[in-house]
Design brief:
Rossmann fold, 429 residues, 6-stranded parallel β-sheet, alpha/beta, 2 domains, binds uridine-5'-diphosphate-xylopyranose, elongated
């Protein structure tokens, strides 16, 4: 099928590349000339497992193209995916400026029947809003359908999440659009939920807010575990065997971050409030998340014996492992607070150093984990990169000023580290 994907961020690029790899003809559009030039040469601006290989392969086969011209892309496509960003505005609402602009652009160049597909996470009612923008901006009459088809891609595993989705959600009242979308996804062995657009939009927010709730829940449980002397890892395991609960998203840590959970929780709170519902549960989820970062800072301070004149070594800046993304990263927030407290902070992350540098310019950016550890009064692990699990902690201990370790992701073995001679603390254990 002929597809065009407007917006080449994480979601757009993965969607475009994967659709092309499935055999569709895809044109990805972005107004950033430089980005499009690089993408046309197969240069990927983000770190995402498997993506570069797909883009290179599909560029070569001609199934994937990049352009800055919406007109060129829309003219040859029937399926038009909107994958532009919807950042939080100052009040926590999802900012739809880019979605509106793109909808207007599409309408002004439409040359026949089009299905406009909202993949961006958008507030309830946006499908109808995009319909209105298009109706108002059409130069001449053309039949079209606007539908909701939310994405559920996790950074780091976005390609496999796209190719092997847990479910596909299509929100539309148009049989024609539903038929074409069903055909597009027919090779995917996944449950297909066809529903109305408003429910599809809600599914996305409800899913992300629920997962965020799980994380805050286990973090709250971890905090209780600490005082009663239980181990939250054992507790998660024991909970997870119950199929109604499951093992996923029960890892205690420094709080959730990233480009989706915080933004989507804020937006859902706003949506609920606008319709007169006080979503106290979700407020609590966000409070726990903020407090979890503060608790981590307090723990660092206590374990280091204050911040004044202390050298804090930090492993990890990305909001989670296997990504270079630092958006709303608890690690970056924590480093920032520790710096404000007056400590000297040395940091290392395998992929996120460049992105983080503008937010924590006072930090010292080290070449590796061992450099971070040198003369440190405490080593703090904030992102669960695999390489941090396999470091030579005996060597690290020799390099440190004092062997104190805070494993804020519970990814190391306390018994092994204590045996080496560390004062070790995790989260909730
Ligand atoms: C998320 C959703 O999973 C995805 O479906 C949606 O479309 C976009 O948002 P992503 O932001 O890539 O994906 O990250 P995810 O893997 O879900 O993790 C979010 C945050 O929660 C991270 O900061 C992570 O470290 C934290 N987390 C996750 C925990 O602290 N503990 C857990 O057990 C799981």
């Amino acid at each position: 099928m002929e597809c065009c994907v407007i917006g080449t961020g994480y979601v757009g690029l993965v969607t475009g590349a994967c659709l092309a790899d499935m055999g569709n003809s895809v044109i990805c559009v972005d107004r950033d000339n430089l980005k499009i030039n690089k993408l046309s040469k197969g240069e990927i601006p983000i770190f995402e497992a498997g993506l570069e290989a797909i883009v290179t392969r599909c560029l070569k086969s001609g199934k994937l193209k990049f352009t800055t011209s919406t007109k060129e892309a829309v003219h040859v496509s029937t399926l038009i995916f909107i994958t532009v960003d919807t950042p939080s505005d100052y009040q926590g609402y999802a900012d739809l400026t880019h979605v509106d602009e793109v909808a207007g652009d599409i309408a002004s160049v439409m040359n026949g029947y089009k299905i406009i597909i909202n993949k961006s996470t958008v507030p309830v009612g946006t499908t109808r809003r995009v319909e209105r923008v298009i109706e108002e901006s059409l130069k001449e009459y053309h039949e079209f359908d606007v539908i909701s088809n939310p994405e559920f891609l996790r950074e780091g595993t976005a390609v496999s999440d796209f190719m092997k989705p847990a479910r596909i959600v299509i929100g539309s009242g148009s049989q024609k659009a539903i038929m074409m979308m069903t055909d597009l996804y027919r090779k995917m062995n996944a449950p297909l939920l066809i529903t109305d657009p408003v429910s599809a939009e809600m599914i996305k927010y409800a899913s992300n807010a629920f997962l965020a709730t799980k994380v805050s829940y286990i973090n709250a449980i971890a905090n209780i575990c600490e005082v009663v002397g239980a181990d939250v890892r054992e507790v998660s395991l024991g909970m997870g065997y119950d199929e109604r609960i499951g093992f996923e998203f029960l890892r205690a840590g420094p709080g959730f971050g990233g480009s989706c959970f915080p933004k989507d929780c804020r937006a859902l709170l706003r949506i609920a409030g606008d319709y007169g519902y006080n979503f106290k549960l979700l407020e609590g989820v966000m409070d726990v998340n903020r407090e979890q970062q503060l608790r981590t800072v307090d723990k660092i301070k206590r374990m280091a014996g204050g911040f004044d004149g202390k050298k804090i070594g930090v492993l990890g800046l990305a909001f989670k492992a296997n990504t270079d993304d630092i958006r709303e990263s608890p690690a970056v927030n924590i480093v920032s607070m520790v710096l404000s407290g007056g400590a000297e902070v040395s940091v290392y992350d395998p992929e996120a150093m460049e992105n983080a540098s503008e937010f924590i310019p006072e930090a010292k950016f080290a070449g590796d984990a061992y450099e971070v550890a040198a003369q440190a009064d405490i080593l703090v692990l904030l992102t669960e990169w695999d390489e941090f699990k396999w470091l030579d902690y005996t060597r690290i201990k020799e390099l440190m000023n004092s062997p104190v370790l805070l494993d804020a992701r519970n990814c190391l073995d306390p018994a092994v580290l204590r045996k080496i001679g560390y004062t070790y603390e995790g989260v909730g254990r």
